[in-house]
Amino acid sequence: MKKIGAHLPDFSLKNQDGVLVHSQDWIGAPVVVYFYPGDFTPICTAQACSFRNQFDDFKDYKVRVVGISHDDVASHKKFATQNQLPFDLLSDTDNAVQDLFEVPKGMFGLLSGRVTYVFDAKGKLALQYKADLRAKEHVKKALKAITLLS
User: Fold this and answer.
1) From the UniProt record, which GO molecular function terms apply (predicted)?
2) What is the pLDDT of residue 113?
3) Residue 44 annotated as catalytic
4) Taking 90 as the threshold, does the pLDDT of residue 105 lie above it?
5) Coil, strand or helix: which one is 114?
6) Would you say residue 48 lies in a domain?
């Protein structure tokens, strides 16, 4: 996993609408980047919906929230629409960005890991949190880190 203070990796991925999103465009405001194993799984859905339910709190701090998994754009579109997600889901089908972030494998080494990263407005890593089964804790930890950055 990345060390606290590490810089936000430079990458571009398509979101659920097929729009290419560039990580360096996020510099200037805090960002929460969370990696999750896959769309439509129970724990991943709970995590995404927890971020959705607290989204206004993140907006109050002018924080961007971004989810990333190996699922393709079409899957992300369906998942975001079905769960009314107000933030980008980025498609990392070859796990290249997951590797840039040094996300460890999840349960039994079979799935992508579940890790949340919080970067400050300068793109410096302020928090990383890994917990495969405690999806809702990711939101709590991210919000706490954001309040400490303010």
Assistant:
1) thioredoxin peroxidase activity
2) 80
3) yes
4) no
5) coil
6) yes
- Alpha helices by DSSP H, 54-134: 55-60, 73-82, 96-100
- Residue 79 maps to which CATH number? 3.40.30.10
- pLDDT at residue 136, rounded to an integer: 78
Report the first-to-last Cα separation within the chain, whole angstroms.
Answer: 25
Please pick, among 8, 13, 43, 44, the residue that the annotation labels catalytic.
44
The answer to whether position 79 is within a domain reads yes
Of 140, 138, 144, 115, the C-alpha closest to 1 is 115
Q: How many domains does the chain have?
A: 1
Against a cut of 0.90, is the pTM above it? Answer: yes
Token pair belonging to 35: 């990696």
3-state helix, strand, coil in the chain (%, to 5): 35, 25, 40
- Burial call 30-49: b when 16+ CB within 10 Å, e when fewer: bbbbbbbbebeeebbbebbb
Residue 138 has pLDDT above 70, yes or no: yes
Domain with 119, as residue range(s), is 31-149
Could you tell me if residue 20 is inside a domain? no
Mean pLDDT of 116-134: 91
| 26 inside domain | no
